[in-house]
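Q: Could you fold this chain for me?
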Amino acid sequence: MRAALSARTRRLLRSTPLRAVPPLLVLSFALTLPALAQAPHASGGPTMDDLTATHQDANTDRIVGGVDATPGKWPSMVALIMKPPGKPARFFCGGTAIGSRWILTAAHCAAAMRADPAASYFVREGTQDLGSTESRDIQVVEIVVNDAYVPDRTLNDVALLKLKHPVSAPRQKLMPQSLITPMLSAGRTSTVIGFGLTTENGSVSRHLKEVDIPIIDQPACTQVYGADRITAANFCAGATDKDSCQGDSGGPLFLASNTGEQIQAGVVSWGKGCGAKGFYGVYASVGNFDAWIRQHVSDASFADASTRPAEAASNLTQGAASSSHPAGMAQVHIDIIEGKTFKVDSFIQVRVSSSVSGALVVFNENSDGTAYQLYPSKTFPGPDGSTEAAAIEAGKELRIPSPVQYDKGYRFQIQPPLGLNRLIAIVVPEKGKINRIIASHSDGGKIRDLALVISLIADEVDDDSSRGAVGGQITDRGSADVSYDIVN
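A: Sure. Below is the predicted structure, expressed as structure tokens.
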């Protein structure tokens, strides 16, 4: 057993909301889970045969006009799998992990599941290749279709799936209702991903695809499909030869924030044709269902309005929100495994992933406006033991504390001040001056102006003329944040 932390280290961390603690005794127990919860099937939507009819050949491509997603991107994406009695398993829709045991998908996918209760249903997570042996399947135990779902017009097309076990994927950050107007604007480029067809009535692929498409203004969308089918609950996006298609249903549409973080704004719903001229894809608006999602998924993560440190982080990714190719930008994800609301003295583990390799630094912003450098630090150094820089590899998840420390019982313990706190992860190209900035805050001391520290890092990145953003497409650095509440 490892000895307790030194008295000096305990003093350094006592005033922060997270601190390291010596090994803990961990107990485990089993739960008996209920059978898959069912509800009456709403008529008028597609059947499971409709959804799976185009997915019999898994050796070709999907998403119209798209390209293969690279490792480390879109880690919250999942595939929905059905296993009929005595028949092979089949993929039928997409979804995203938005809670430790919750998946967001389309209501028409979930309604088809309820109508065929003889089959077993799973989500496949942790892969961009449906044929991968490294993916993990988790059983669906409850289906929650939005009460206002109208199948014959495909309105309010959102649903939630509860899982038997927690996902290992990070929670996908969602668009709140308050950001619909500023973010979901006509002409802005979005990204849609999925395992759907690359051509209408075409064949399928085992590889995850991505494509950048413009948001269409609501009047133009209404003119094409009619006011009875286009409401505040949905919106259009797409272009000729660039679109989502059959098989992408339930999957996500993203918009890049000012810091380059991908926020889920839509759920693939329906459309006439795939990439057909004059017709667009229709997406359920995630922000419109903000309250409904929060009601069912207590640990769902929604984007916040920018504050000073977040604005400073945007210096790293100038032009991210207006990029014409947001899918090509680097992606960083940060998540707290245990959720987002914690009592004082509880324990947490943080996970970070990135689509690019580089130097990682994680800051904690306290509710009183002060901050400290959480990682790397003298208590929790980087993988090589250094406090000057912590390297993260593209496509690899990094946990704080590390698996070695976790196995020895070390944890972060929640401490006051109470209120809303935030973790900010930044990945930048490794560089001597940046490493020195990171090292100067590795003692866990209080940072009174976090925005200034982040700006200094951004300035050093920009000084390297051989790297950086081209046309708003940031490919070598990124940032992300996650908020959490500390309560009594």
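A (continued): The CA atoms of residues 462 and 468 lie 7 Å apart.
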